[in-house]
Amino acid sequence: MKELRCILLDDELPALRYLRSICEGFSNVEVVKAFNNPLRMLEEVDQLDFNVCVLDIEMPQMNGMELAGKLEGKAIIFTTAYKEFAAEAYELDAVDYIIKPIQFDRLKKAFDKSYNFLQREELPQYVQLNSNKGKILLHFAMITFIVVSEVDKRDKRVIYDDGREVTLKNISFEQLVKLLPRDAFVRINRQTIIATRCVHAFTHNQVTLLVGSKSFVFSLNEHYRKDFLAMFGA
Question: Which percentage of the chain shows pLDDT scores above 70?
Fold first, then answer.
């Protein structure tokens, strides 16, 4: 069985045939089924063995984002001709967002991200570190961002989604980058690592995180810009 078992959905048949032809060029991807109707896909989805779904966003009857909310545990790749859906797509924890026309190399990046996403459950979900509260288990899924401590630059402040924080003692960003899941965190400047799932918007020089009703704005440094943009296929 191939590593990635994929369902395709696009209401435009020429686009769907084109997408399927590209997918068939990947040795590790099996196209389980292709649909041009979201409601028909919903009727059959529980009977299909798949772990990745490539969804068009703009469709009649039900858009791709509504449908994605019903596909728990699947790697979701959105495709669209419109850039304005990007922020909403990542809020749904999509692994990638591709602007049409779809290119082979661009889809390969999306499938690579899908593979990493599907491997997460097999990877450690936390790491044990020293903190100002003693030994702690730092759970990756709870982190919003990590910044340098104002008191001692050798220490790092971790801010959680619920507003709580903890100070990690005597650890460098280089060490943290090696410990954190590479597809879930990215460094954006010399003093900040962020969780990619919390990214709400970004420009060439700035990144905005959104958690509930709270937003956080950070600078995007030139040295880290390329890696950051690559995370979002920009």
Answer: 92
